[in-house]
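Meet the record:
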Amino acid sequence: MSEIAIKDLLDLSGKTAIVTGGAMGIGLGISARLAEAGTNVLIADINAENAERAKQTLAGQGYKVDAITTDVSKAADVEAMVQKAVSAFGGVDILVNNAGIYPNKLVMDMAPEDFEKVIAVNLESVFLCTRQAAAQMIAQDRGGKVINITSIDALHPSTPGLAHYDASKHGVWGFTKNSALELAAHKIWVNAVAPGAIVTPGVQAMQSKGATPASVDMTKVLENFLAKIPMRRMGEADDIGKVVLFLASDMSSYMTGSQIVVDGGVLLS
């Protein structure tokens, strides 16, 4: 097998990526890095205004970007999302399952519908998006990449109030491994990225008292969490974007069914 020149390893020109939850935070960081590498990026987000703003921002930098309003927990929306990528850019080569929610609620205060919503958005959506995008990749017969954003909570719990979130992320990690087995026959590689504490608008919202149970002091929780990070800093969206770019490129040509932890070393503690 001939080696690929270093300058070409991260060149994704001509490839098309779908990034769910791609309009803000980690998703926007991922969208920006993929676009910079030459990828046509479809930003799929439930918030139409944010999706359009992200599209205009990246397009203004000369990147090939489109956007679609998508509820990833609904099969019809997911089908429309993949068809949008095909009509706008001619196919799908990379799927990044990033969309997710993490409302903080203790188990004993949690209603069944609270649990079910997190599972639908964080876990069932990964199944729906992977199934639809992989079907397109298989029809194209040129392989592809599926990259799932899990969490260090798929390996170790971070704080009370996230039992439903942790359950969903454990599920995504399990789904990643098994779908990697199944899709390898079609040269579709499936991997995951497990972020630690990343500064995003969603995390900032969690710090407000109204976003957490009265019994949980989120400011104190985050202070204690920061103290456990050997790097002594929170991560940034681009820290995840760069790792996703690695997995989307030929830099990761012999990887499938793997999970890369990007947490500043917090799991060491």
Observations:
- Residues 113 and 246 are 37 Å apart (CA to CA).
- The first helix runs from residue 6 to 9.
- The chain has a mean pLDDT of 94.
- The beta strands are 16-20, 40-45, 65-69, 94-97, 144-149, 188-195, 259-262.
